[in-house]
Amino acid sequence: MRTIPRWSKRLAIVLPTVPILGLPLLDLVVCDIGRMSGFFGLVLNVIGAVIIALPDVPRLDQYALPRDLRHSWRTFQDNKQLTPTDKGFESMVELINRQNGRLDYDRSCNLLNIDYKVYGNPSISAGFVEDDGKPPRYKIADWVTMQMWIEDVRDNVRASGFIIFMSGFMYQMLSYLL
Prior knowledge:
By secondary structure, this protein is α+β, with helices and mostly antiparallel strands. It folds into two domains: about 5-60 and about 160-175; about 65-150, no CATH class. Helix content is about 55%, strand content about 10%. It is built from five helices and four strands; from the N terminus they run αααβαβββα. The protein has helices at about 5-25, 35-55, 65-80, 90-100, 145-175, and strands at about 80, 110-115, 125-130, 140. Strands 1-2-3-4 form a four-stranded antiparallel β-sheet. Strand 2 and strand 3 (about 125-130) form a beta hairpin. Helix 3 crosses helix 4. The longest helix has about 35 residues, at about 145-175. It is elongated, with a radius of gyration of 22 Å.
């Protein structure tokens, strides 16, 4: 089940309501509220379209992930392991717990590792503090599955852009009614 990030839920609530409450106040200054609503809708359409396209633009695709998750994902790919001292370790553990819940909350994870196999897909394993420095042996997910989870986070950005885009469409339709 996909979850929408907290910031996009707030954005979906704030974007439609703030202008609706602010439009009557703006009516005192601007006589033609219909044009203003249409213009605001057009601006929201452009912003929403840019956010929808953000994960597909080569130089901007990195900004489709939250900063901590982006740093931890890059470190994980480069170093083949992630420790609590690495930036974004907690966001990676939170993503894994949200998707499959294999990292227990009562045990503290101290290492994420990529295990390569001779034939087949690499897997991701976790080590815990209670293991006393032994190599990680608890399989969490396959590498392909982890990449799919990261893509789900990028898809949440697209969903947020779609909400903004549809809010802009709503304001443009509202301009015809006013």
